[in-house]
Structure formats: C-alpha cells, structure tokens
C-alpha cells in the first residue's frame, strides 16, 4: 500500500480576529494554517485575519475529512465552540494559538 493511501487528513477550525470560526480540510493542518495567516489561504480571511488554529481532528481519508467538514459546517456556532472547548480541555497538544 502506498504512503498516500495511508496518510491522514485533518478537519480544522481557525479563529479569525473578529471571533468567527473557519472550517477546512488539509493533509497538513499546520501548513494550511500558516497559509491562511500569510494571506495565501481562503478569501474568508481577507476581511479578518486568521489568529489561531483552535481545533484539529484526524481522519483516515480525504473522503472522511470532506464528510466531517460538511457536518461541522452545518453546526451552529455554539456547537463548533463546544468542539473547540472539548478538545482544548482533553488534548491541548493539537490546539495552537499564535500570538
């Protein structure tokens, strides 16, 4: 089996300066967050810059990540905030705030 077939994918939430949460997927969440911060990421951050990678969830495939991203995007903001809070309480290694 090739490395690409076993490489994990990630669903992540990034907090913008205005408090909004952006949900996306990537095969490297840290690299993608750096792209969002540098202006090479989503247009979402043109009006309010990315300030913190607040949630990362590991999934087994790109398809799984896309399905989870869709589910998260359909959640109310309070449910997304609960995900962030639960992860920061249980697994602070995956949460990284950039100052």
Automatic annotation (TrEMBL):
Q: What is this protein called?
A: GIY-YIG domain-containing protein
Lineage at the top is: Bacteria, Pseudomonadati, Pseudomonadota, Gammaproteobacteria, Pseudomonadales
UniProt xrefs under InterPro entries: GIY-YIG_endonuc, GIY-YIG_endonuc_sf, UPF0213_domain
PANTHER family given in the database record = UPF0213 PROTEIN YHBQ
Question: Which protein family is named in the record?
Answer: Belongs to the UPF0213 family.
GIY-YIG domain ranges (all copies): 7-82
**What domain of life does the UniProt record list for this protein's source?**
Bacteria
The residue range of the signal peptide is none
Matching entries from Gene3D superfamilies are given as: GIY-YIG endonuclease
């Amino acid at each position: 089996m090739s490395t690409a077939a076993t490489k994990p994918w990630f669903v992540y939430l990034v907090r913008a300066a205005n408090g909004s949460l952006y949900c996306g997927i990537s095969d490297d969440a840290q690299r993608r967050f750096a792209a969002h911060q540098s202006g090479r990421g989503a247009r979402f951050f043109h009006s309010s810059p990315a300030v913190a990678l607040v949630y990362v969830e590991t999934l087994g495939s790109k398809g799984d990540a896309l399905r989870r991203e869709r589910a998260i995007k359909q959640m109310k903001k309070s449910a997304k905030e609960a995900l962030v809070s639960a992860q920061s309480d249980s697994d602070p290694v995956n949460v990284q705030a950039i100052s």
